[in-house]
Specification:
The protein is of the alpha/beta class. The chain is built from 14 helices and 25 strands. An eight-stranded antiparallel sheet has the order 16-15-21-12-13-20-17-18, with helices on one face. The chain is globular, with a radius of gyration of 23 Å. It starts with 8 loop residues before the first strand and ends with a helix. The structure holds guanosine-5'-diphosphate. Guanosine-5'-diphosphate (GDP) binds next to α1. The site of guanosine-5'-diphosphate (GDP) has 16 residues, from α1. This is Probable translation initiation factor IF-2. Belongs to the TRAFAC class translation factor GTPase superfamily. Classic translation factor GTPase family. IF-2 subfamily. Keywords: GTP-binding, Initiation factor, Nucleotide-binding, Protein biosynthesis.
Length: about 450
């Protein structure tokens, strides 16, 4: 093991899961979380705080002979719980992606699909190392891996027919990766994960191959990403807000991924807010309790500090205006003004241009708001107001103030209508459009505008 001094310790790599709809992203995350829980490790995550921490000893417990834990000095893997390239590209850290590494889930029977291509483009553009999870291998007739056996050996132990059927599908995926400009191979044949993409046949349903995937991710991080994982563990914490949530007994809280330094109870923090940076003091740092304790105890456990990389729920006054996707910075050993300026500078990168008249835009994170604004600019639709968060009565009131009737509209991307806005909406003189696909959302709005125009002629 390498000796790391206090000032230069390795943090957990942050992993995102991407892939086409229905190829098994959610199932894979559930299985990873579930296996960690059934490993019986203290601290296994049961409550959602946006990210799941899988410590090295849990991975090694799952992976058996696949892994020798003494080969590693990275502490484990931290999975972002929201899958998809949307959250990958809109959750950022210092202008880059929050995730260090990605799992691209591809259904072995279905191969590359449009969202697989999109995900690949994003991974290429951001230079993010990734591994392919060739999922649903259990649907290949004859697939019969032995418990606890590495997939390679299981594959060889199958009937020749099953092996060749699965192999055919796997080589199809390897070919598609090659068409996309990546050299790839079955993971046990890959020597250098920087040059070659490892493909791991697995089943998110049965869990077979999942330990292999975790092992490959650990190996990739350990060998090629150590420098990026070196942090000052005692430094002022830096993180990204995943979600703003009301939590009983705590008020507004922010689910946060801390990617650098340490955040302590009582710290002064600066958080990106709707109107201006929020300066507040940490009241509680909350981590989910292990399942077996929840029956008797509260859902969350208060901790004194959280070091990177980790998911944590932060309770503090004035967080109701915090924005998903915004930066969180601990103020320690440096002037508050400087930290506020840093947060402002990061937010300024995601400035949305608004006009005197236009539509109201709501989106789930800052990054997605920016993506919406760009798409609307291309479509030449002006924006009156753009904000992160669910649709509130106030938004309906604002949308109604638009001058042109065609602008009396809210375009909500990946957001819900708040319960207290429902009656408001019924009586409102405006239109609401919501979708989880930006282009679909804008298409719907444009169709509406065209139909209005036609009706008036
Ligand atoms: P997502 O849209 O990518 O998050 O996909 P889901 O995780 O929701 O999975 C889509 C469907 O495929 C669900 O019905 C899952 O039960 C099923 N599924 C996911 N993984 C597997 C697998 O490994 N094997 C089989 N047979 N079905 C799977």
């Amino acid at each position: 093991m390498t000796d790391h001094t206090n000032a230069d310790t390795l943090r957990t790599p942050i992993v995102a899961v991407l892939g086409h709809v229905d190829h098994g992203k959610t199932s894979l995350l559930d299985t990873i979380r579930g296996s960690a829980v059934s490993e019986g490790e203290a601290g296994a995550i049961t409550q959602h705080i946006g990210a799941t921490d899988i410590p090295l000893d849990t991975i090694s417990g799952m992976a058996g002979e696949l892994i020798d834990p003494t080969d590693f000095d990275l502490p484990g893997l931290l999975f972002i719980d929201t899958p998809g390239h949307h959250s990958f590209s809109t959750l950022r850290a210092r202008g880059g992606a929050l995730a260090d590494i990605a799992v691209l889930v591809v259904d072995v029977n279905d191969g590359f699909q449009p969202q697989t291509e999109e995900a690949i483009d994003i991974l290429r553009r951001t230079g993010t190392p990734f591994v392919v999870a060739a999922n649903k291998a259990d649907t290949t007739p004859g697939w019969n891996p032995q418990d606890g056996e590495p997939i390679q050996r299981s594959l060889e132990a199958q009937s020749e027919r099953a092996e060749s059927m699965l192999n055919e599908n796997l080589y199809e995926i390897i070919g598609q990766l090659s068409d996309a400009g990546f050299s790839a191979d079955l993971y046990w044949r890959v020597q250098d994960f920087q040059k070659n993409i490892g493909v791991v046949p697995l089943s998110a349903l049965t869990g077979e191959g999942v330990p292999d995937l975790l092992t490959v991710l650990m190996g990739l991080s350990q060998r090629f990403m150590k420098e990026e994982m070196a942090i000052d563990v005692q430094g002022p914490g830096e993180g990204t807000v995943l979600e703003v949530k009301d939590e009983r007994g705590f008020g507004s809280t922010i689910d946060t991924v801390v990617y650098d330094g340490v955040i302590r109870n009582g710290d002064t923090i600066v958080v990106g807010g709707q109107n201006e940076p929020i300066v507040t003091e940490v009241r509680a740092l909350l981590r989910p309790r292990p399942l077996e304790e929840i029956r008797t105890e509260k859902k969350f456990e208060k901790v004194a500090e959280v070091g990177a990389a980790a998911g944590v729920k932060i309770a503090a006054p004035d967080l109701d205006q915090a924005m998903a996707g915004a930066p969180v910075r601990v103020v320690r050993d440096r002037p508050l003004e400087g930290v506020i300026e840093e947060v402002k500078a990061e937010l300024a990168e995601i400035e949305v241009e608004t006009a005197e008249d236009g539509v109201v835009v709501k989106a789930d994170t800052l990054g997605s708001l920016e993506a919406m604004a760009n798409a609307l600019r291309e479509a030449e639709v002006p924006i009156l107001r753009a904000e992160v968060g669910d649709i509130a009565p106030r938004d309906i009131a604002v949308a109604e103030t638009a001058n042109q009737d065609e602008h009396k509209a809210i375009l909500g991307f990946n957001v819900d209508l708040l319960a207290n806005a429902e009656t408001e909406l019924e009586n409102a003189d405006m239109k609401l459009f919501t979708d989880e696909v930006i282009y679909q959302l804008i298409d719907d709005y444009e169709t509406y505008v065209e139909e209005r125009e036609r009706a008036q002629q």
